[in-house]
Amino acid sequence: MQQPILSCRGICKDYPMGVETVHALKDVNFDIFQGELISIMGASGSGKSTLMNLLGFLDTPTAGDLRINGQAISGMSRDRLAGLRNETIGFVFQSFNLLARTSALANVKLPLLYGKHEGVDPTERAVECLRMVGLADRMDHHPAQLSGGQQQRVAIARALVSNPKIILADEPTGALDSKTGKEILALFKELNESGITVILVTHDPDVGTFTNRQLVFKDGHLITDSANKLEAAS
Description:
- By secondary structure, the chain is of the alpha/beta class.
- It has a single domain, classed as P-loop containing nucleotide triphosphate hydrolases (Rossmann fold), CATH 3.40.50.300.
- The protein contains 7 helices and 11 strands.
- It has helices at 48-55, 78-88, 104-109, 122-132, 148-160, 178-193, 205-210, and strands at 6-17, 20-32, 37-41, 63-68, 71-72, 89-93, 166-170, 197-202, 213-218, 221-225, 230-231.
- Strand 4 and strand 5 (71-72) form a beta hairpin.
């Protein structure tokens, strides 16, 4: 039986808010397998962004068991989590998060300068990734010289540069027009077909229909998982 690349069992996440406690995630259970193309969906306050932070090892659960390739993250040091994040996950953000005063090439190289990537030439790998996303002729351009779609392609190349098993994208089409958004989704599909697990966090139903599986959240609960036809009371 195939082992999930990410596994959530009884995941809860609480935040103190003055004298109150906000229960952002409540007893969440699911598995994600290598090669899936998934959307995590829900309105603002549904818990999807909190879940994204947990799946990206940017935060840890209050309760429950979160595993990557069968390995529990509970008890891992911050340094170990940072290393795991750098080795395993490529992040793509709605606002691109590119360094304004550096070239596309320099932006893409950045993750390789902070992780352990022995035997990898940062410049060669960054050039390869920019070619993969169709920006071979824009490597020396700064973000201000690029369109929104081109900036997002740079961000995707940066996510790819460390050869991740997972791409985790937060509202990746949210800052783009519909035509450019479709082009970016097509690029994610190409990457998924190459074997990368792609997880898109979104409130946009059109993005959800593009993926093969949808996890829908409401008020901290997973109410729909299209993989196993879960339909919880909403």
